[in-house]
Design goal:
With 345 residues, this protein is an alpha/beta fold. 32% of the residues lie in helices and 20% in strands.
């Protein structure tokens, strides 16, 4: 038999049903197998105790279960954030982050090994794009972290290495599988997908009718500044991004989150705050203000505390909700913009 996928985690429930039928097994075995893989998080064939040894042997001849392994793990002394350096079966290095809060555990996962978007303040893009991850490789990040931490993952952010919409089909498959009631059944409302603004895919994403939060990495109040720090701005204007965001909100009923990295002398002035307020004033949205995190290959400096507070207060005065994000895990290079496809610590 020629396997559709090398990794068993890549099969949806309907695809598993076809697979078990090809092996001459009854259809209900597919649900049993799916639950072992995606609810009980089995990683070895010996764990699948309600499946026959013969069936397990046949599966093992053509499929592996997990395409990832922990290469190293770093724990922040500041806030307990855990960074996982993981290696794919092909040898690619990616990073994922687990953040523990009073309301639950959030996990930030990667969608690609590397990134080709070229944002000038981000470490993820320094070595370019090596490969896009499969749905199984994205699921594995969640499953490995949940088992290693010994607690349920409550929230997922696809905001690690890579541009999710540059790997659109696999990201959508991942979303449908991680929210499947036969698996971990994580609520769509507890998942955020971040994009630097691939407008065509933003419309496609809206038409998926998922109740997932869309986060747009804006990082500038106008096209001129955005083009200087984000190459994607040469392809899509801020007006095009805004139109796509409005369509997303009308289609899904969900507000959009804008990510705005504050860089000293670049985009942190009150004039920038005014332009940003004018840009979002008629939108259902929230703004995350992110003091730029250190990347040793870059020379950007984070905005001063006074500038950050003044920026936020200007937004609030204009009835725009803006939150200053705490840089979780910055001492282990696990904060926003610091993840990379190279093991460097």
């Amino acid at each position: 038999m020629s396997a559709k996928y090398d990794n068993l985690l890549d099969y949806t429930l309907s695809e598993l049903t076809e697979l078990v039928n090809e092996y001459g097994e009854k259809s209900f075995r597919a649900k049993q197998l799916y639950e072992w893989l995606h609810k009980k998080l089995a990683s070895e064939y010996d764990e699948l105790t309600n499946l026959s040894k013969d069936f397990r042997k046949k599966l093992a001849e053509e499929h592996v279960i997990r395409p990832m392994q922990i290469h190293d793990k770093l724990v922040s002394k500041k806030d307990g954030t855990v960074k996982y350096i993981m290696k794919t079966s092909s040898g690619s290095i990616i990073e994922s982050v687990a953040m523990q809060y009073s309301y639950g555990m959030s996990v930030c996962i990667s969608s690609q090994a590397g990134c080709r978007m070229g944002c000038s303040f981000c470490a993820s893009t320094l070595l370019g794009l090596e490969k896009s991850l499969s749905a199984a490789e994205m699921l594995s990040q969640i499953y490995i972290i949940q088992k290693d931490m010994g607690r349920r993952v409550d929230n997922i952010v696809i905001m690690g290495i890579g541009e999710p919409f540059d790997n659109y089909e696999q990201v959508i498959k991942f979303l449908r599988m991680i929210t499947d009631e036969n698996g971990l059944n994580i609520s769509q409302r507890n998942i955020t997908v971040s994009t630097c603004g691939l407008v065509d895919k933003m419309y496609d994403f809206a038409n998926e009718h998922l109740q997932v939060t869309l986060a747009v990495s804006l990082h500038a109040p106008n096209d001129e500044i955005r083009r200087k720090i984000m190459p994607v701005a040469n392809r899509y204007s801020m007006k095009e991004i805004k139109d796509a965001c409005i369509y997303f909100t009308k289609t899904t009923g969900r507000r959009v989150t804008f990510e705005y990295t504050l860089i000293s002398g670049v985009n942190d002035s009150i004039e920038c705050a005014k332009q940003l307020a004018d840009y979002v004033k008629d939108m259902l949205c929230h703004i995350n203000l992110i003091p730029v995190n250190e990347v040793k290959e870059r020379d950007y400096e984070r905005a001063s505390t006074d500038a950050i507070v003044a920026f936020q207060k200007y937004l609030e005065k204009n009835r725009i909700n803006g939150t200053i994000r705490k840089g979780m895990g910055s001492d282990i290079e696990a904060a926003c913009g610091q993840l990379r496809r190279q093991y460097s610590i």
